[in-house]
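Hello everyone,

My group is preparing for a crystallization screen and wants a predicted model to guide construct design. The compound we'll soak is pyridoxal-5'-phosphate. Before spending weeks at the bench, it would help to have a computed complex in hand. I've included the protein sequence and the ligand's SMILES below. Output in structure-token form would be ideal because that's what our pipeline reads.
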Amino acid sequence: MMSFSRTSSSAGILTFPPATQFYPGLRDYFPVALFSSSIRSMSSSMAAFSSSQGLPIRSSSHIAARSRRKAITIDTVNPYLRHADYAVRGQLAICAEELRERLKNGDTSLPFKEIINGNIGNPQAMDQKPITFFRQVLSLVQYPPLLEDEYADKIFPRDSIERARTLLNEIGSIGAYSHSQGVPYIRKSIAKFIEERDSFPADPKDIYLTGGASSAVSSLLTTICGGPETGVMIPVPQYPLYSATLTIANATPIPYLLDESTGWSTDINHIATVVKNAHVKGVDLKAMVVINPCNPTGSCLSREEVKGIITLAAENTFMIIADEVYQTNIYEGEFHSFKKLLRELQRDVPGKYDSVELASLHSTSKGVVGECGQRGGYVELVGIDELVLEQFYKLVSISLCPAVSGQVLTELMVNPPRPGDESYPLYKEEVDAVYKTLKERAFLLFNAFKEMEGVSCQEPMGAMYLFPTIRLPLKAMKEAQRRNEKPDQFYCLELLEKTGLCVVPGSGFGQKDSTFHFRTTCLAPGEEYVRRIIAFHTEFFKKYS
Ligand SMILES: Cc1ncc(COP(=O)(O)O)c(C=O)c1O
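Reply:
Good plan to model first. Here are the tokens for the complex, ready for your pipeline.
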């Protein structure tokens, strides 16, 4: 009956990355689970890892046997990579994949018939459909002979044919490398989009197309980080791309806490203290990451919060990395872009904000586009020293160019059909429907959490996740301890085992000491997902209260 054996075996990475030795305060917010993942015993090779003095090792005989054959072993692989952890695709996701495989192979012993992945914001893996216009243009650009077909205009609307012709004219073949910074024509479109959004000019030369926001983050942090002395402020909770990338760069993540009691707000005074403490500890604080709207909390920054952060950056000279990939996933209030408010401050208070360095990220993965598999996105860099930009350009040029199909999709996201265009009515209908569905699903889950014993959740404002707190009964805490699992990890593993729902323990994102959360996406269709959570939670509380 049990889906996988409950013996807890260490998955290896039990130490903090070296950078945290430089900044031990991190342990308070990223307890073991962020940098480690003990998994319930599985057949997976990961389960064979064990721990000795904090280093992930296999049994020594195994190592000896392996090292005779392999130059690169788990002992010699880049230790910073080995220390990095990414909970979104971590233990829970691995276990879920195992269970999915068992279901596929006809295992009828499990108490559910399907796995539902609430662990990752992957809209088209659920039931979200691509935007028709986007895929029409992409098809034509991928296979230009379609444009010559006498039936082309019977299959494709005229504006998608025109757009494909324009793009092919600008790009040449989609199978050719583009400029490393991205296709110039697409950079112009992005600049226009930013101008329309912010009511301030944007310059195509400040824009770099990227393979999703993740590759922009990786390039930025590679450019910024020079070793453990380099500090980068990250929110707690945070999207673990940041902690993982900083670990790989052997830099020091400096946590700043979001305040759950006030809707996960960003307290500027607290951040000012964090900055001061970092300086006292001798950290060379280079940048601050802001995720707005926020993954995992679903909160959105107010104008005052954004301006407060920009002011701190101006006064303390650190770069802002504004992760704005959820800028169109807003359910309450308004999205305030860092670029717009920076330009406002520069206009209103001449001089003070002139040297603020800002990187703003956007992506085709989220919003109502949801094309995460296509790897499109961009970063806009303003206020950056020219010589640093040269280094950044050199870095991105080492990878030649982001996928050109992803660039095309980025062009379509920033330059969609407009009123009066043949494709506009369908485009509008599709984006409105996706937006409405995402919002409805967020509130369906939120309303369920409101009713659940021991659970509290902030009202969703944006993004595509909820991050409820669970106050676990003492008996459940003891059971977690007995199993050598973190309490939130225990709850999530139980949920997976009993229902097939995969969510991520809060420890994967960082959380205040003695608080426990989990993160779920709001993407699952229908009410089944919510029903299963409620039924599980009720049983769990009945059993452990
Ligand atoms: C806050 C945040 N930034 C960046 C990313 C990465 O997105 P992309 O698919 O564009 O690399 C994600 C993905 O979930 C995210 O939540």
